[in-house]
Structure formats: C-alpha cells, structure tokens
Automatic annotation (TrEMBL):
SUPFAM superfamilies xref list: DNase I-like
Protein name, entry field: Endonuclease/exonuclease/phosphatase domain-containing protein
Species of origin: Hibiscus trionum
Domain Endonuclease/exonuclease/phosphatase: 4-225
GO molecular function, one term: catalytic activity
Chain coiled-coil ranges: none
Organism taxonomic ancestry: Eukaryota, Viridiplantae, Streptophyta, Embryophyta, Tracheophyta
Record InterPro entries: Endo/exonu/phosph_ase_sf, Endo/exonuclease/phosphatase
C-alpha cells in the first residue's frame, strides 16, 4: 500500500487545493495524513472527497479548525483507535501482507516549551508493544545536529529528549530516499535554513512485517515541507486510455495558435474534411506535447532535487525559485486538463 504524509501549511486557497489534487493523482496513495490544513471540518472533508478520498476524519487544534486530517480511499480497511490535536492513531489492513498493522499520524509541538508533552504523548500511545507500529509525520524536532543546516544550533537537550522518547517506545528512524532535509526557509544564503523535521519511525515488529519498504522525500514547488511517501510494496496499475477532445489547457501553450493556423492552411476540401484534418493533426500534436511535458516535468523535478543536494548559494536559490515557478505552470496545465474531465465549474 501507499501512505502519504504532508504538512501542507494551509489549504485555504483554491490553487493550493488543486496542487494537492495533482500530487495525489500522480502518486495515487491509499491513505493520506495531512497536517496544518487550517480548514473547518466540513470544508476539509469536502476537499478530501474532491481529491478522491471519500472517507476521513478531521481534528481541529485549539483556536483553529482543521489542523490534522486522515483520509482514505474506498476499499482501504481502516479502524480508528484515538485522536487528539497532535495525533491520529489507527489500524490499517495491508493486502500485500494480509495483516493488520498500526499507524499513527503525528504532529510534534511547534513550540520548544511544549515539546516534552509531545514525547510523553508518544509514551502514552505505546500500549500495544507486540503490534507492528509506524509513526509518521512532522515531529518538529531533530535527532542529530547534522540534520540541520543554517540558523542557530539546536539544543542538545532537545534532541536527547526526542531520542529518549523513541527509545522508551522501542522506535527507530526508518530512513528515507531523496533529499536529506524535509523543511526549508530563506531564499538567500545568509537566511537559508534546512532541517529534517518530517520522518517515519517504527518498532521491530513493523520492520519485520515490511522488510522491503521505501520512504521517499518528494520534491515540491509549494509549501516549505516535503511530502513523505511510504510504500510497503511496489504497486502498478493499468494506464487509462485517452480519447481525442479539444483541450482547454492547450491555450496555455505558446504553440497552440501557430499549430491550428498551420493545420488549417495545410488542409483542403469542404469544411468538414478540413476540420477533420485539423483534428487529426491536433491529435498528433497533443501526444507529442504530452510526452515533452512529461519529460520537462521530470527534468525540472530532477534539477530541483539536484539543487536541494547542493550547498546553498545565491545562484542555486535563484534557480530553485525559477524551477518552482516553471513547475507551477506545468501544474496549471495539468490542473486545467483534469478540471475539464471532471466537468467541474471551477471558475
């Protein structure tokens, strides 16, 4: 199965919701844990349904609604155990292994003075030591000083408290693939700070149940947190067959007007035949466009990952911003493409 965890830092803007829907469509997770959604419960659940997750629970924090949300697709077996403002605890059935295992979506206290209360919560949740258990989310803390670059040095006591809490619960960091940090702020070298705040930790039972898992830090073009994508096993699905139709997203392509004029000029005969010729030509152009767009998006994402692995400089940070803008434009095209298929009155 696939499970996605992400601190979205607010879903109040329609464009952000569209970006979320685009990401969920690309990675196709079965379960999604979202942090800091900043939406009221009824609105957040509507967003989940729009993204293809009809089942879910939303937990509001003190003074705000919608800080945590757990959502899952039809066919996914979920049994809720407990939830508060800092966690959602549940059991999930894995089709691949044929077993139930425990998962906790976690959000550590952002303020340092409340961090110990978060670690005590972990100890309280440790009531089923013999059940495979994974905790995933934004812990807002480091395990080691090398997990931070820039800014003030992290207190050793803070990191020791976090490690002690994990040891008391027999939990260990499960590692990752991709960029080493999961949170970043500052667009100049002097102000740039990078930290690994988001992670997954698990007990020995979970490690034994899923020896071939992967946890990836996914690249992004918005939010200052990376997405965490957990795969307990490799999955693949059939591709959806595409049928010709005029795409509203083509208007975002600079070559669209030129292509229509070129095809119309090259056509001959009665108008219906000329229209059929233009349609067939646009069909070929569309497939080439989709192929080049996919390659372009992959190249941009790969370059974003390369820049993330480099030591920050003014040039690299400037290029990072340019790539994020280019990725946002590609997502605009993809969003318009899927809006047309959903017959949604998005305006």
């Amino acid at each position: 199965m696939k499970l996605l965890s992400w601190n979205v830092r607010g879903l109040g803007k329609p464009r952000t919701v569209g970006r979320l829907r685009d990401f969920l469509r690309d990675v196709n997770p079965s379960v999604v844990f979202l942090i800091e959604t900043k939406l009221h419960a009824d609105v957040m659940l509507k967003v989940c349904k729009r993204c293809g997750f009809p089942n879910g629970i939303e937990v509001g924090s003190r003074g705000r609604s919608g800080d945590l949300c757990l959502a899952w697709r039809n066919g996914c077996q979920i049994s809720l155990r407990s939830f508060l403002v800092r966690h959602i605890d549940f059991m999930v059935f894995d089709d691949g292994s044929g077993q139930w295992w425990r998962c906790t979506g976690f959000y550590g206290a952002p303020k340092e003075q409340n961090r110990r209360a978060s670690w005590n919560l972990l100890r309280q949740l440790n009531d089923l030591p013999n059940v495979p258990w994974l905790i995933i989310g934004d812990f807002n803390e480091l395990l080691f000083s090398f997990e931070k670059s820039g800014g003030r040095i992290r207190s050793q006591r803070q990191m020791d408290d976090f490690r002690e809490a994990l040891e008391d619960c027999s939990l260990a960091d499960i590692g990752y693939t991709g960029r080493w940090y999961t949170w970043e702020k500052g667009h100049f070298v002097e102000t740039n700070i990078r930290e690994r705040l988001d992670r997954g930790v698990a007990n020995p039972g979970w490690w034994s149940l899923f020896p071939d898992f992967t946890l990836s830090h996914l690249s992004h073009s918005f939010s200052d947190h990376c997405l965490l994508l957990l795969l307990t096993m490799v999955q693949s699905g059939p591709r959806v067959q595409w049928h010709f139709m005029f795409e509203a997203a083509w208007f975002l392509e600079d070559s669209c007007e030129f292509e229509v004029k070129r095809l119309w000029t090259a056509s001959s005969g009665p108008i219906p035949e000329r229209l059929r010729f233009v349609g067939q030509g646009l069909n070929v152009w569309f497939w080439r466009l989709r192929a080049s767009r996919k390659v372009s998006k992959l190249d941009l994402t790969k370059r974003l990952e390369d820049l993330a692995a480099m030591k920050p400089s003014d040039d690299s940070l400037e290029e990072t911003m340019e790539i994020k803008l280019a990725l946002n434009l590609e997502m605009d095209k993809s969003e318009l493409y899927w809006e047309q298929r959903a017959h949604a009155n998005w305006l």
